[in-house]
Fold this protein.
Amino acid sequence: VVGGGIESVTEQTVAALGEDAVVGELLALCRPTLGPETIVGGGDDCAVVASASPDTWLLLKADSVIEGVHFLPETEPERVGWKALARVSSDMAAMGGTGLHALVSLAVPPNRSMDWLRGIYRGLASAAEALNISLVGGDTSHTTGPAWLSVALHGRVSADTCVLRSGGTPGDLLYVTGTLGGSFATGRHLDFTPRISEGTWLAAHKYPTAMMDLSDGLASDLPRLAKASRCGWRLDPHLIPCTEGCTVTQAMTDGEDFELLFAVSASTAESLEIAWSHVFPGTRLTRIGALTVPGDLGDPTFSTLHGYDHFQHP
Amino acid sequence: VVGGGIESVTEQTVAALGEDAVVGELLALCRPTLGPETIVGGGDDCAVVASASPDTWLLLKADSVIEGVHFLPETEPERVGWKALARVSSDMAAMGGTGLHALVSLAVPPNRSMDWLRGIYRGLASAAEALNISLVGGDTSHTTGPAWLSVALHGRVSADTCVLRSGGTPGDLLYVTGTLGGSFATGRHLDFTPRISEGTWLAAHKYPTAMMDLSDGLASDLPRLAKASRCGWRLDPHLIPCTEGCTVTQAMTDGEDFELLFAVSASTAESLEIAWSHVFPGTRLTRIGALTVPGDLGDPTFSTLHGYDHFQHP
């Protein structure tokens, strides 16, 4: 790899490569920097690092919302602020952990109204109150382009119960919470409540062998979980819990569901389903398929579907 | 405060308010969310929160670099990556702490070359190696506007020696490291080494009563430190250590110096100066003035100067 955008022979764009290839290359550049306190550095919902106590690990996660990509200029700023904090909290839930302290980086055009900015922070503060997170700081800049904010969340998980994407084995059953699809069309992506109670309960009872949150759509995210667990996967299309009015394809590819996808050993699945119905009677839980042997890519109908790609669907 | 940019009677822009007023309002919206683990939430170089050990506090800091604001389209991406990590490390140095783990949020136009993105990450990785920081993750998005990245740094400081902006008292002498001004003109803002050795040494020996790093220029930053310490301030213009070729006004207002500004009790100043000359013979240390009684705004020549304002100098 020879650097310098100007002199390079092949001017390969990030769009041509696609999000997963770009992220894979960037993670490889980061790997040599990882120190002894890093437990998981890249490739999972959150980074995991050691804390001053061996019983507790720290979770670190940053994610961005960008005008024109994750919200529209006319979107109420309160909902944008809510979404920005809720989505990083969802990543912590997917490891069985909870967020504690958030930093907000934000850039706006200089002619943006102060009322808009207040709305963003009112939304962030509402989510912080609801999710028991402290908004401890951040930075504000101007930009000549669309407004954006990035939230960095610092959280905590019990070292004993932290769930990674990589712990699944062939034969584990796959479950999702809620319904999938239509998150943009219904506006749910701006107002959703992250599955923190569900995620921490699942982890505390050690049901999931692997877990992640669905942000780019099942068609993109399930292969990532399966790959991290060195498994193949099979889905039963009739079982996918589609949001009312959505097709199975929409449920697989719309993205921004912020539901939990997790694998459970077949031997504990019945116990999970019984307990779940008592603890979370209001949250739908659906078995949608299973992890299989490596190389099994599931129903060919599904292996050609793609979820949201940040560099190929702009 | 009534929300909703569209219906509001006064469409006050962020530029009209100015950075300090904007940040002040936003911090007030965050304050109700602060929990019992928050030691410093907003208004200092970093946020400070409790850790699993009472002897150690965690430092949290995020900051952004934006194309067209903090770097130019033609800037070598390696230097942009270096700057992005070095500047948040400088904030930790200003509290006597060190960075440990970093997350990188990044957005680029889809037609941006992969070589440019590799360059950014090579620069981040170089800084991470030099500063002993692990790059543990992040997120990548596309944007229709200029490229940007935000780095969130998680670090550590001894609870016993953490230095805030607010500990100065009238009569304390003011010092700066290095020389001020010309950081943009010379390109130093892209290549500087944060004053981590100096900051941690100062804190460990409990010399500073208050400290911060200079990012917006002494003319903006000194009044912030003085205000946090409920003091006034006086500068001796003849003592300001100007970068070669810079005027005193440039040294006060150019910004992006990433040098340390700190206050020291008059009773320990001589001891500091002697020790410093032995420990850091290569780093200039200059006494530039003193904190004074509240309301004293220093030489009137200086009270009319302003450093960089993100919303008023775009």
